Each structure stands twice: as C-alpha cells, then as structure tokens.
Amino acid sequence: MNFRQLAVSRRSLTIATAFVGVVSLALGAHAALNKRSLDAARAVATEQVGEATNASRIALVIGNGHYPDANAPLAQPINDARALTAQLRRTGFDVDVVEDANRDDMQRAIGRLKSKIKPDTVVMLFFGGYGVQVGRESYMIPVDAAIWKETDVRRQGVSVESVLEAMKEQGARAKLVVIDASRRNPYERRFRAYSHGLAPINAPDNALILTSATPGKVADDSRGANSVLMSELLANLTAQGAGVETVFNKTRIAITRASEGEQVPSVSSSLLEDVSFAGAEKAGS
Q1: Angle at 251 between CA 55 and CA 54, to 5 degrees
Q2: Of the four listed, 37, 55, 64, 134, which is most buried by Cβ atoms within 10 Å?
Q3: Which residues contact 167 (CB under 8 A, 6 or more apart)?
Q4: How far apart are CA 110 and CA 161, in angstroms?
Q5: What is the Cα–Cα distance from 221 to 206, expressed in whole angstroms?
Q6: What is the pLDDT of residue 29?
Q7: Closest CA to 81 of 61, 101, 66, 51
Q8: Cα–Cα distance between 221 and 279 in angstroms, integer?
Q9: Other CB atoms within 10 A of residue 247 CB
Q10: Total Cβ atoms within 10 A of residue 50
C-alpha cells in the first residue's frame, strides 16, 4: 500500500468515526427528550389524579338557639352544631361554624362559603333552629328576626333554596344540606294563613337534602342534649365506608321507626355520584 492509499484509508476511517459519533449523539438526545416528555406526562397525570381524589370538602354549620320571641332558648341546635362540626372535621371537612347568628352573621358566613367553592368541591350546609315556609320556599330564621307577617320572613330570613343556588352557581361538585328546623315556631299565630313546618326543598343537580320532618309537618324536640335527627345522623356518619345517601336514608328510617311514624324525616336526592364521609377519616382521629 502506497502513501496516498494509506492517507485515503485513514481519512475514510476518520469520517466514519465522526459519523458514528454524530448518530450516537442524535440518538442520545432523542432518548433524553423522550424521557423528559414521558416524565412530564407522568407528572401531569399524577397531579390530575391527585386533584380528582383530593377534592376539597367544606361545610357551613349554623346553630341558632336564642330567639327573643321564643318562650325559652333552644339548647339542641347549638349542641348539634358543635357535635356535627367535630365529626365533620374528623372526616376532613373545612368547617365554618356559627352560633346564634343574626342575619348579617348568616349572610357573611354564606359569603365565606361561596368564596371557598371550586368546581371539585363537596359542600355541606347544616342549619338548626327555627324555619318557616312562605310561598313554597323554606327560610332559615336568624336570631334577630322580627317577624309579624309573611313579608318579614322573606326580608329577614335566609332562603335554603338561595344557598343551594349559590352553591350551584359556584360550580360545587356535590351539594349536601341538613335542615333541622321543622319546629313549632313563635311566629305561627301571627299569620292569617300559616303553613306548618317547611316547604319541599327542590334539589338542584347533584344535591342531597335531609330535613327533620316531612314537608308541612312539625317535630317536637326530644329531652336529650341533641335532637333526634342529629343523634341518628351522627350514629350513621361513623359507619365505615358509608355513602352519604345511605347515611341520610338510614337516619330517616331509624327516626321513623323509633317515633312509630310520628316523625318522618324527608330525603330528597339528585346525586349523580355518592360521597363517603368515613372515607376521608383522618389518622389518629
């Protein structure tokens, strides 16, 4: 082999080596890019799953007991509010609890609730105290309400339906309502045309509503520290893995049987998915 042939061979070898290096670098860069893309996709998927499984759970709990127009304070609504708050917090709810709320207190609390609602939020409202129905709507009565006629109820009360509508407008995923207000109230003799108890509460999409008595009926308070409704509700809330619709229906059946049909709670459902209370139990609670 002469000198010229040797030079050509060496040059060819150098070119081939350089070509292999370029190809290797390209393949390595492509693999690294694919890995980064895969890692990013996995991170997004994990984040989305986390968001889906850790939907926020918030509640507004109102217990009104001291009404100036009543002959005596109601002890049970405040006890009920405290007991329910403790249980909901154990199951992962962010609870805003208000006791003996006047109308401004209630409106501010509802405003706070609305500000927390996101599209994935499970929202719960509890009200214990006096309730009045007017024009097929049920109103929660603040402790400072001065009620002498039906227009006073509309002006000074807080409509349950209006709170449900606010939940819907904010995009809440599921809406849960418990109203323990089917009591004989101190205003009933002031109206010419008076309807006992509460009106049927229409459930918007994906909502579940429990009231302490059938629409148009009243229920007498028991002698216990908690109302019959709350006692049974709390007993069923602790059932392992129980869905909220099952909890509400078991509460209704237990009260109906215990009262021999004298008190029949009402459950209205339009739930599209069930919600578990016990599923989010905090460790160590």
Answers
A1: 10
A2: 64
A3: 113, 114, 117, 123, 125, 175, 204, 207
A4: 13
A5: 31
A6: 47
A7: 61
A8: 31
A9: 26
A10: 9
CA distance 123 to 176: 6
Closest CA to 126 of 183, 82, 190: 82
Residue with tokens 């009402």: 266
- φ, ψ (nearest 5 deg) of residue 240: -65, 125
Instruction: Encode pLDDT of 246-260 as tens digits.
Output: 999 999 999 999 999
**Residue 280, both tokens:** 């989010």
CB hemisphere CA count around 168 (13 angstroms): 16
Whole-angstrom distance, CA of residue 257 vs CA of residue 280: 30
- Give residue-wise pLDDT tens across range 30-80: 444 454 444 444 443 333 333 333 459 999 999 999 999 999 999 999 999
Name 266's Cβ contacts closer than 8 Å, sequence gap at least 6: 200, 209, 210, 211, 213, 214, 215, 252
Residue with tokens 């609602």: 117
* Phi, psi for residue 84 in degrees, rounded to 5: -65, -40
- Nearest alpha carbon to residue 117 among 197, 43, 58, 205: 58
Contacts of 155 (CB under 8 A, 6+ apart): none
**Tokens for 220?**
């007498």
| Rounded CA separation 141/127 (Å) | 9
How many Cα neighbours within 13 Å face the side chain of 13?
6
Per the rule left: phi > 0, alpha: psi between -120 and 50, beta: everything else, 116 is alpha
Q: Which of 162, 151, 68, 57 is nearest to 106 (CA)?
A: 162
Beta strands 207-211; 131-134: pairing state:
unpaired
Asked if residue 96 lies in contact with residue 112, where contact means CB atoms within 8 angstroms, the answer is yes
Q: How far apart are CA 268 and CA 247, in angstroms?
A: 13
